[in-house]
Amino acid sequence: MTNSIHHYDVAIIGGGPAGQAAALVLDQNGARIAVIDEQQRPGGQILRQPPQEFAMAQSMKGKSYTSLKSQLRAFEALNRCDWIGGKSVIGIDRSGGTVDLTLASGDGITQVSANRLLIASGCYDLPIPIPGWTLPGAMGAGGLQALVKAQAVVPDGRVLLAGTHPLMLIVATQVIAAGGTVAEVAFDQRQSFLARLLIKGAGTALRNFGLMLDAASAWATLRRAGVPVTFGQRLSVIEGLNRVSSARIGKRTVHCDAVGLCYGFLPQSDLPRLAGLSVRWAQPTGGWAAEHDGWMRSSVSQIFVAGETSGVAGAPAALLEGQIAGAGIALDLGLIPMDEAEAIRRDAARKQIRVSRFAALLDRIADPTSALTALRDANTILCRCEDVTIGAVETALIQDSDPNSVKLVTRCGMGTCQGRGCEHMLLRLAAHKRGVGPNELRGFTSRFPVRPTRIGDLIG
Amino acid sequence: MRSQADITRGMPVTIEVDGQMIDSFSGETLLAALVAAGHMRLRNDQEGQPRGFWCNMGTCSECFVSRLDVTPVRRIRACLITVEDGMRIATRSISYD
Predict the structure, then answer these.
(1) Minimal Cα distance from A129: which residue of B?
(2) Which domains, and CATH codes, for chain A?
(3) What pTM was computed for the model?
(4) Across the interface, do B51 and A384 touch by the CB < 8 Å criterion?
(5) ipTM score
(6) Fewer CB atoms near the end CB (10 Å): N or C, chain A?
(7) Architecture of the domain whose range is B12-90
């Protein structure tokens, strides 16, 4: 370990919309800040930036990106704020009075210490244990999108997008714009179900016209490109020998070389749980969202949360939570008078009403519950790290329906990803067995280091 | 496949993957270089079945490969690492014995 520990007023984990918003408020009030992110450059997944060495003219068009991009530019212009990119936070320790973070990267271990911590670590693609999802070429739609928009690389051949989340319309157009081929965009839901929700939520949808416009223009682009957008026929199997070669959509076989699975997103919850923050099961997509008060204070002193960490609600909501967290931390540190903090909070909270209604509408539209209920194929691998099948988990559940016991017996969740891939499904299966909701179960215990780290780096 | 639409990449970089030379560009992630080269199979599971990357954002651990040109050899997540000239990588999809 290195001996030099940098100390800051505030450490922010995550350089996405929430982390940036908090940093801007805190910097304005004189705080010394470090922002840490696994990516090399700021932006988060939503604005994941091309490498500095690249020049991309088409980068992230669309109305919904406009205010996010201007915030990113403002954040990058901050000169007192330390950007620590390309490093993973693997541990949080509060025993010394400050919040001490252990960071890992290809270069080894470093440490950062701060008086307050904001966890704004975002979300990730809902892992969906569909037969064939472990084949090379099957990937999360968010992962596919990041490849296209930040690296301008598209998987070879025909790309199928399947799932429940409307984001896949946008990912499909980005694949086409990059010169790729989209085989089909297949929604699980019937068109009439989507229409009914959109009509019921029409007011909400219209007030969020930026995103709606992006989705509508995506649809028009796909139509012009001759890409079928289908509804009500569920993806049931992905097939292939050495990589994806086809998929079953309803009763049809669709030839494709890659599949982007798009069923929603789970909060990154390993750091909140490692630090002992209280969390709640996030309906309907699943995963654990960190609980907080009106200032985004978590249940643990000195630690705040913002953005998808507190429940997946989209980038505009994350940005507002980041502003509130920034004001809350500044208030806590005595950097800002109450009335100023309150003004920031009130302004953001007012805007939150609109975006949270839209997030709730999107949650209802993209609800993966029925897709996940249909996926009970005993031979399909649920835990990708330890090769544990759904059948093995179901067998273990007959003996003991406690998720942590099943983890010990089957090794489901004991691999390098620490259960990020399988925990949600194991909890769903266990809850089903007990006849309760997953919210009534205890999730996996998060352990140091929360990202795979070389042992030699830790003891060296 | 690399998109050619309105884009200028970094300087050409050559890396070695499982003994084969792969063209890449400065700034690219190792995973992007692998996908562009059609190298989707990154490991085999316990039953010898092929595996590829899943998340491309550091959470799933499926894209772990070994970096051979450093001492000691490091296991790295290909999606989080930027290519460097002379990088030598072994995926876990072939056996070396």
Answers:
(1) B54
(2) 6-124+266-362 (3.50.50.60), 129-262 (3.50.50.60), 375-440 (1.10.10.1100)
(3) 0.95
(4) yes
(5) 0.95
(6) C
(7) Roll (3.10)
